[in-house]
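PROTEIN DESIGN WORKSHEET
SECTION A - STRUCTURE
LENGTH: 343
TOKENS:
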């Protein structure tokens, strides 16, 4: 079978690998149909990813996966069947560490992600635990692959305790920011999306958000506080990882509010400590999601297939996986979501 294998820094080899062994008890074999790319894929490709120890190479990347069930192993759940379209929940937790014991396996100290710590979706077949497989009804696999980034958005609105009628500010209108905006809107919140790129803000409008172009931290903070009613927004979600955006978010949020940080970067954040104390802010990080949140994300994607199709800006075949990664990394202004297909 064909597999796109990351063998070194900025190096992906297209290899003919043996097909996997038949699925064992509680497993299924799937055929990936679409694999979305995100920042963690870029970091791994660049040799810069350090998540619970740097993943060993060679590695088949791809954790945003839409697939079709090819074969069921013994004792597979009755709701699964061959030929069924599914999205894959990529997180594997140890079940024993402190986060797992307190019900937060999404931040397991020894977690594994398919496509990072174990081989993922950029191959023609993949064996995975049946409880990681979520049926999804969508005529377009590239849209079904959005369930994984949307699951992070669901986690973000849960962590942020987003409620109906609240006025929520989302910093960044990339794929995760768009997903957060829609997940918050589904809860009845009013959303203001902030981003420097006009085409991204047009998509935010289509998802039901009000929009504001990024100019300077001071200007967007002043506007957003007034938009929220003058006291500031009860919650701000950062989907950028940019220190300037996070700092603006701390200015925007109301006293006793919540700052939810989803965006990732290796940059340092310089914020006056007293700003957190004076406002008594809740600062909440977000990492992956829990199984029930993945199921909720699947439902969201199923309800909005046409609108969410606008998030898929480019598609490449599996044989062009190296070019797809390079293109996505080198063209951030024109890329929303790059998806690698099966042909």
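SECTION B - SEQUENCE
RESIDUE ASSIGNMENT:
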């Amino acid at each position: 079978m064909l597999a796109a294998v990351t063998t070194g820094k900025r190096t992906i080899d297209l290899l003919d690998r043996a097909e996997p062994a038949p699925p064992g008890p509680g497993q299924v074999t799937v055929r990936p149909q679409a694999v979305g790319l995100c920042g963690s894929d870029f970091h791994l490709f660049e040799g810069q990813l350090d998540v619970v120890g740097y993943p060993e190479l060679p590695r088949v990347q791809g954790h945003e996966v839409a697939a079709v069930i090819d074969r069921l192993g013994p004792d597979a759940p009755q709701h699964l069947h061959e030929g069924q379209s599914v999205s894959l929940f990529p997180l594997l937790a140890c079940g024993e560490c402190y986060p797992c014991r307190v019900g937060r396996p999404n931040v397991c100290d020894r977690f594994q992600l398919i496509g990072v710590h174990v081989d993922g979706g950029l191959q023609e077949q993949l064996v995975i635990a049946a409880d990681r497989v979520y049926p999804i009804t969508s005529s377009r696999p590239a849209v079904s692959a959005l369930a994984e980034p949307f699951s992070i958005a669901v986690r973000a609105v849960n962590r942020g305790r987003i409620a109906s009628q609240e006025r929520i500010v989302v910093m960044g209108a990339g794929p995760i920011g768009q997903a957060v905006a829609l997940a918050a809107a589904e809860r009845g919140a009013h959303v203001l999306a902030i981003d420097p790129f006009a085409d991204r803000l047009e998509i935010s409008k289509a998802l039901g958000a009000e929009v504001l172009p990024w100019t300077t931290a001071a200007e967007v903070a002043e506007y957003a506080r007034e938009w929220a009613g003058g006291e500031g927004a009860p919650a701000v979600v950062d989907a950028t990882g940019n220190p300037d955006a996070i700092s603006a978010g701390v200015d925007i949020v109301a006293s006793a509010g919540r700052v939810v940080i989803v965006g990732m970067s290796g940059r340092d954040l310089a914020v006056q400590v007293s700003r957190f104390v004076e406002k008594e802010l809740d600062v909440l990080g977000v990492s992956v999601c829990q199984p029930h949140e993945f199921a909720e994300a699947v439902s969201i994607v199923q309800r909005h297939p046409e609108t969410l199709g606008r998030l898929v800006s480019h598609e490449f075949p599996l044989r062009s996986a190296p070019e797809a990664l390079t293109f996505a990394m080198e063209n951030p202004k024109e890329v929303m979501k790059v998806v690698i297909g099966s042909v």
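SECTION C - NOTES
The CA atoms of residues 106 and 289 lie 5 Å apart.
The two ends are 12 Å apart (CA to CA).
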